Amino acid sequence: MVTSALVAIFGGGQAVWLCVPGALLAGATCRSIRGGAIGAGLVVAAAAGAALIRAGAHPLPAAPLIVLVPAGSVAVLLAVRARLENERDALRASALSDPLTGVANRRSLLERIDYEVARHARGRRSFALLILDLDGFKLLNDRFGHPAGDDLLRDVAAALTGVIRDQDTLARVGGDEFCVLAPETDDAGADRLTDRIESAVARVAAGLDVLGASVGAAVFPNDGTTAPALMQAADQRLLGVKRDTHPGRGRRRVA
After folding, report:
1. Which one of 98, 176, 223, 235 is the catalytic residue?
2. Helix, strand, coil: what percent of the chain each, to 5?
């Protein structure tokens, strides 16, 4: 029945060109570019086969044209589709990353926290959220200029990336404020992670006596069960650290 329908539609002659919109539709609606190419090829092959059945009564166009015209049309469509998908991915990455340091931004971090809340709640497990503030950064920024401050922030981001795990998320959420989201981490793990973070910042700040780091940590679910609650708990501990220690020599405070 399908073959009869194809023969009726693509019954030789110029009607074979009706396969072009069909091929374009197949290329546009498939989920992947590869699937689109395969779907378009099947449409063209089916149309050409149906046309050949009645080629005696209705002479076909030149064989190279039957192949090249649909293939070229589909190739243009797939190239435009690939470019649009790449631009979409680039826009999404730009919307979720910090343009200066390349790490995640606040929006990306909050989405990740929501995901980890749901995942850890199902398994009744804990994760940690750490907020890091660079003590003395404003003084250095004012003294050496914003370009030097930007270089320092990039160096700090690179150093922090080197001491966290692949499954952890590092985000820049403010001028000199960073966050680390550490899945599958309890109070003791948060304390160890804080030690690594402070050591990493200390290496970057070597020779800069006024620069240091203060860290506040919150652990799910004891300190909160939502992203805003966890951010607030970690921020409150960060403020407590700043009140209790000297600038540039901050220490963390975990529950």
Report:
1. 176
2. 60, 10, 25
Closest CA to 216 of 133, 112, 94: 133
Task: Please check whether the domain covering 106-244 is classified as CATH 3.30.70.270.
Answer: yes
> Is the distance from CB of 130 to CB of 234 less than 8 angstroms?
yes
Query: What are the tokens at 175?
Result: 């001028």
pLDDT tens-digit profile, the chain (255 residues): 444 444 444 454 555 666 677 666 766 777 777 776 777 667 666 666 666 655 555 566 666 666 666 677 677 777 877 887 777 777 776 677 898 999 999 999 999 999 999 999 999 999 999 999 998 888 888 888 888 889 999 999 999 999 999 999 999 998 899 999 999 999 999 999 999 999 999 898 877 767 888 999 999 999 999 999 999 999 999 999 888 765 444 444 443
Return the closest-CA partner of residue 183 out of 116, 115, 103.
116
As given in the structure block, the two tokens for residue 181 are: 């989201």
Is 176 catalytic? The answer is yes
pLDDT tens per residue across span 24-34: 676 677 777 77
Beta carbons within 8 Å of 186's beta carbon, 6+ residues apart: 126, 128, 219
- State the pairing for strand pair 212-220/127-135: antiparallel
Domain boundaries defined on the chain = 2-94, 106-244
Please give the Cα distance from 189 to 211 (Å, whole number): 25
- Within 10 Å of residue 199's Cβ, how many Cβ atoms? 12
Residues 6+ apart with CB under 8 A from 92: none
Contact (CB, 8 A) for 30 and 39? yes
